[in-house]
Amino acid sequence: MSAVLVSPKTFVSEFPTWCPGCGDFGVLRALQNAAAKLGLQPHDICLVTGIGCSGKINSYFNAYGLHTLHGRSLPVAQGVKLANPNLTVIASGGDGDGYGIGAGHFMHAVRRNVDMTYIVMDNQVYGLTKGQTSPTSPTGFTSHTTPYGSAEGPVRPLRVALANGCSFIAQGFSADLKQLVDLIIQAIQHKGFSLLNVQSPCVTWRETILEDDQKIGVYEWWKKHLHNLDADPDYDRHNQAAAFAKLMEYDDIVTGVVYQEDRPSYQQYLRGYTDRPMSEMASPLDDAVLEQFAEQFK
Amino acid sequence: MTPMRSELVWKVGGEQGSGIEKPGSIFLDACSRLGYYSFGYRHFMSRIMGGHTNYQVRISHKPVFAMGDHTDVMLIDSKGAQEAIDMNIGEMAADGVIIADAGMKAEMPAGSQVRLFKVPFHGIAGEIGSDLYWNMVAMGASCAVTGLDRQALRDMVYATFARKGEKIVQANYDAIDRGYAYVIEHYGELPHLKVAPVPRPVRRLTMEGDNAAAFGALAGGCRFLAAYPITPASMVMEWMAKEAPKVGGIVVQAEDEMSAVLMAIGANYAGARGMTSTSGPGFSLMQEALGLSGLTETPVVIVDVQRGGPATGLPTKPEQGDINEMIYGSHGEIPRVVIAPGTYAECFYDTAEAFNLADRHQCPVIVAMDLTLGMGKGTVERLDWSRLRIDRGKILTAADIARLGGEYERFANTEDGISPRALPGTPGGIHLNTADEHTFSGRITENQEQRRVIHDKRLRKTDHVDFPGLAVRGDLPADLVLVGFGSVTGPMWEAAERLVAEGRHVAVCQLRRLWPFPTEEFLRVLSQAEAALVCEHNATGQLAHLIRAQCGGDLLPGLRKYDGDPFRPAEVVARAKEVMADVGSARIA
């Protein structure tokens, strides 16, 4: 009764308030396509987001949406998934949200390996608060908060994830819809924590990138530099050392699946854990069971 | 002939890290087996090795709710003996006895009337075969002084070591008997320290407040706990980690307390009964998430076992310094409920009930505990399973939603402010829930009228909270009513009992719900008392100020303790007399 035939349109709700040309449109479209291709029902998806332009994605995606606090999508999403393993849980947000204020949660979510997907729309800038330097901004980046250029080096999310045992790591580009849909599908299908970092350009605060004293349009710049690992038949996505080498070789400017490891998810380690939603367990325990627990206090 | 006593305070002390808590809990459990009511409190420091630690156990024929003012019998091991003597001699009853290891080098202070029995704990243990038996030698010696039946110890030894074989059991029995015999042979009997046996022993439960709260949570349907280890709340987490998987529950050790409470909120959002447990420093980190729970109307239960603050403060000492934070914490304004158990049994029932409150009101529910209550251990008369009930509040099924004909609004503006929830996964219930201000259907809005109406809606959710506001013990009208909550309740009860025995009219008002504050009930109590004394574990009188803010009038006189030591009945008695004298003189003037 509740299952309906789905298409990308099934997952469309409001029209986004993002700036025209924003990379996040591509991510939203890819997510809608991927959900449809997977045949997921909207009510079986829970999209948990942080704060920022990208955190608004669940305002525009037709599913259960929980729009949380800045940097806090991952803990909430892990709680949701553990409480109801039947849900497809996706956390999402931006680079400031995930790699700045939420960086602590990110590293631990990676190693915990709860079966869920994390999609980061990485644009190297704080968009919603009007163009400040972000944790992935390059050294020297000028903005209102770093008028003389940022002194800090950028966070390397793919390498952080790799070093901490993330079981699925991929990077996409919001302008390459076909690959992005494919990566989202693989990330969701992966049994464990999957990180999908998406280069999702901000056309308002980072419209151009300076290269050899020349300003290049941000989309153009990414297109020019991104190296597609998926197109490399020799690349072994199950080799951690090779993944590190590739990231260093291309300064993390790659697309495709960087690393995948088949290891038990957090849930699989938990004793007594079932795929029964916990909402069905909140019933009184039998007196005999309670007596048994009480026995240790006698 | 000296009549046998019905009450005794026993203590063991020594260097931290040398296993002092073990004989403490053995003694308490043995006394419990013999049918005595007991109350245990462990004094310890925030380090693994070194420093002084002690465990006081008070036993009685009638219920006891507080630490003893004086210690009658104290065991001291050779390690850290001098510090143990120096730190505890002031608390010893003048006719008390210290039973120390014969090998100790420490001196008693000059002029002390306290007697010193030297017993070779380690010497005897060594002769039996292992130094591990010193505990039991000391226990046997304790029995010789107090007259407690050694059979309880033997029973416990049997229960613990039977699977390790006859030899181990027999060695322990020997240790008990030789410790006992040594005291009788060298020091004789001390009739004034003998405790009368309980005529018809009833086997009761002994529980730490933390464990009681954890058990209560499980009994109340909680199947998800995320937490970060912290003294004095870790036991809540540890108990759940061990027991919850037996009924399908899980414990996640989060990377920090922000994550812990957020995971619990996520689990509740998805339909679990989820909680976190923490102490002040962790609770400070959770302030942001309180607002998330409040604005998204997601239930969550937080057990705050308070300890001495601020900052890292006194990690191993009691305080009630989080009152303001529990009631006012987090930016902006949210509905919330703060309940306060005062006994071990209440830790069980209240934590179970906290989940009903959270589900019913869809907001944070904070269980305000404190270190003395959380880590202290005492007798629980019995747990009545029939008092447990589960009320999940307003949750809609797919069929319920279908009947609404497409009109489901997650934050519908209902009369009581509480809007039915659709859990994720429920067909037909799809909605956005956002920590931004939103419309009734959950879309982000900054519309002024909408903001006013939905903010009012949330705030009126806790207009009627079905949880007792306070509990009065004693007769009203009274000359003085003692006011407090949590672990201060027991000392107030005992103080009132003593004052009543002296012919004074004193009652106790235990606050059971700190928020929403039970203003009317409290004013009714106050109107029946000549004076009130607010006893609280902080320096600034957070509870007294809360009462004034909620009830008006002058700031009530207080007894404020913030030196890291639990309240003792005697100090409440002393301050109560001062306050009553002041009222008396005011009346005469």
Describe this structure in words.
The complex is a heterodimer of chains A (about 300) and B (about 600). Chain A has about 300 residues and is of the alpha/beta class. Chain A has one domain: Thiamin diphosphate (ThDP)-binding fold, Pyr/PP domains (Rossmann fold). Chain A has helices at about 25-35, 75-85, 95-100, 105-110, 155-165, 175-190, 220-225, 240-250, 265-270, 285-295; strands spanning about 45-50, 65, 90-95, 115-120, 125, 130-135, 170-175, 195-200, 210, 215, 225-230, 255-260. In chain A, the strands form three sheets. Chain A has an eight-stranded mixed sheet with strand order 2-1-3-4-8-7-12-11, with helices on both faces. The longest helix of chain A has 14 residues, at about 25-35. Chain A is globular. Chain B has about 600 residues and is an alpha/beta fold. Chain B has four domains: about 5-195, Pyruvate-ferredoxin Oxidoreductase, domain 3 (3-Layer(aba) Sandwich), CATH 3.40.920; about 205-385, Rossmann fold (3-Layer(aba) Sandwich), CATH 3.40.50.970; about 395-460, no CATH class; about 470-589, 3-Layer(aba) Sandwich (Rossmann fold). Helix content of chain B is about 40%, strand content about 20%. Chain B is built from 20 helices and 23 strands. An eight-stranded mixed sheet of chain B has the order 6-5-4-1-3-2-14-7, sandwiched between helices. A seven-stranded mixed sheet of chain B has the order 9-8-10-11-13-12-21, sandwiched between helices. In chain B, strand 15, helix 15 and strand 16 form a beta-alpha-beta unit. In chain B, helix 3 packs antiparallel against helix 6, helix 7 (about 210-220) packs across helix 13 (about 345-360) and helix 9 (about 255-270) runs parallel beside helix 11. The longest helix of chain B is centred in the N-terminal third of the chain and has 22 residues, at about 165-185. The two termini of chain B are about 50 Å apart.
